[in-house]
Specification:
The protein is an alpha+beta fold. The protein has 2 helices and 4 strands; from the N terminus they run βαββαβ.
Length: 97
């Protein structure tokens, strides 16, 4: 299984826009995607008010590639994120047994 951690920093004046995107677009999309065993959505804390995270556990690499394509190691953006997200970070790990 593959742990995929996707973190974003949004522009200070777009925090609520991203929160809306996360709740109304990303959450429904990710929770209904075949191959994602679990997904957790991280909201900002006071010390990092413009950072969000999505932590996904994928069944296998084939399932991940079926969703994002062969360039699975690159962060993908949804068209609704354009102009909202300032920086993106993506990390992958194998799940420890």
């Amino acid at each position: 299984m593959i742990i995929r951690i996707f973190m974003v920093t949004v522009y200070d004046d777009r925090i609520e826009d991203f929160r809306d995107f996360l709740q109304n677009t990303a959450m429904p999309l990710m929770t209904s995607t075949d191959g994602i065993e679990t997904v957790h959505f991280g909201l900002p804390r006071p010390e990092t008010p413009n950072q969000f995270a999505i932590v996904m556990l994928w069944r296998d690499l084939d399932a991940l590639k079926a969703f994002v394509g062969d360039d699975w190691q690159e962060p993908h953006i949804h068209p609704d994120e354009r102009g909202i997200v300032k920086e993106r970070y993506l990390h992958h790990f194998e799940l420890a047994a």
